[in-house]
């Protein structure tokens, strides 16, 4: 194993009595008292590691199959119509809580080694198996806990028995201590039981999906004064424990909107929730893509990261426009919503920030026998680049816009548009350390409020970014294909999204609204919560809401939970 | 070090390569389906309507599972991918569109995009 011997000299100096910093007393020159171990940052890398960071260390993100709006909601159920219940679920409380322990010991080490090397070397010569708890590095020392005195004793005997690659002996020091902070939960057993019930309600067995979006504000917890704050180690660990014990076959986990800034505890998911395929971390406080390295080993199909500081699209914060409306995240580090907000805004100049200096853009429309001036694609036909039709190399060259100034100038000349943000899909094609290739597709109409046929676009984008830096991606190649929308696409376009339960406060309803709600609930069979959402999304137009409901129901897009009264 | 070609030359070359590639690709797809995986790198990924298929074995299985096809490519566009994003490895973005009829199905529109790297270009040059 690798041995980082860089810090070695420092610790050697520490061996001289008297020069040891921060004397703490107790046995041995480097013993420390338990209370110095408050939530120390767990890191098994040295501070200035130059380790390579891959852009996406956790497997390829893919879009779930299907076009339904429900499919795109991370962590929530897909096509409905399946029988309620389904496999797994929260089992009844297992007997007993924690395991019995006879005491906690902490073992400080005098040097900073590669964690894996150190723990393996110790296990090789230690007479008993041990499980290191809360391994962490503080200054030059490595610390961990073990849970009983005989193990601690056995480890102590390993002191001076291992020689590191520099020829020095590894020292093992043992001290009694209180249990490490990681296992001291500030959630009492009865709180944990409530939390479990709360999580059970948010669990969809048919999808093996758990929705913990903004769990802090869940009425069940708030009413009991239970604080489940997922950016706190103890809360997150409690949640993971409950998942591990009750629903370890979980495949979708939604942790959005929980102010999460570190993923240390989530690393446990790799072993405890091995079937996890979808993880939604959108709308949190992740600042660096290095955090994502902690998820190494998770074979995710989808990872949602939008609305985290690490995804900031624009270099200039002032030009960032937050898009309103429904939260439909794109699973990449490129803010597609913002791009189209600007694209639709009437001034596309700010898109300059989205493109690399040397960017290229071209546009293609399908071959059409129609008179171009009559066709709705007329505005785009004249700039369409199609190598099947254009054989002259100069013309081919001219139709390719090159450099970002030319690209954006060209885009600014294209007609004003309104994209249906709710309908776009994003597919990641491939990625490397420096390249991310994806395709966005959706529908848009020209102009504002004009009755114009709908157009469908497919934008294939190559973006450049350095995965080692927390920099935004910029577009280097942009290929835009535009055609008429099909009747099916038109039917589904610009429709209010399907109702979903939310934890936002319920506004008080007027009497007519109450009546409408009761009637709608009766007719549709949906519970009041879902009926209300459907009506609200359709501006309390009963007939429109009913139409939408019927449509979605026929398409099998309403999950069973909507009908549970 | 290789000489950097100017952008115009890149564009000209990429047009020629992409035309040749597309002819070979869809010919294989329609008539010599088993040869198709030879056009993919070992670690290539294909994404079809949101579903990813990676690696030679999975790709072979995937192509075998598709009914026989008749592709008509109506639109073709390509761009050289900026070298900074590819760390100097010559890469082309190729985008096609047209219609396809799979046996047993009605004719549909299709759109497809490819990222070609220099290895494939050499392959085509000497075929």
Automatic annotation (TrEMBL), chain A:
Biased composition (Polar residues): 43-53, 363-376
Region spans: Disordered: 1-103, 363-384
Keyword Transport: yes
SMART domains linked: TAP_C
NTF2 domain span: 336-482
Residue ranges with Gly residues bias: 76-100
Any GO CC annotation of this UniProt entry: nucleoplasm
Domain (TAP-C) ranges: 511-565
Biased composition (Basic and acidic residues): 1-17, 64-74
GO biological process, one term: poly(A)+ mRNA export from nucleus
Entry keyword set: Leucine-rich repeat, mRNA transport, Nucleus, Repeat, RNA-binding, Transport
Molecular-function GO term, any one: RNA binding
Highest taxon in the source lineage: Eukaryota
Primary localisation category: nucleus
Pfam families (UniProt xref): LRR_NXF1-5, NXF_NTF2, Tap-RNA_bind, TAP_C
Protein localization: Nucleus, Nucleoplasm
Family according to the record: Belongs to the NXF family.
Record's protein name: Nuclear RNA export factor 1a
From TrEMBL, chain B:
Domain of life of the source: Eukaryota
NTF2 domain segment(s): 17-127
Cytoplasm recorded as keyword: yes
InterPro entries noted in UniProt: NTF2, NTF2-like_dom_sf, NTF2_dom, Nuclear_transport_factor_2_euk
GO process terms (BP): mRNA transport; nucleocytoplasmic transport; protein transport
Primary localisation category: cytoplasm
Gene Ontology CC annotation, any one: cytoplasm
UniProt-annotated location(s): Cytoplasm; Nucleus
Keyword Transport: yes
Keywords noted in UniProt: Cytoplasm, Nucleus, Protein transport, Transport
Record's function text: Has a role in nuclear-cytoplasmic transport of proteins and mRNAs.
PANTHER family: NUCLEAR TRANSPORT FACTOR 2 (PTHR12612)
Name of the molecule in the record: Nuclear transport factor 2
Organism in which the protein naturally occurs: Sparus aurata (Gilthead sea bream)
Gene that specifies this protein: NXT2
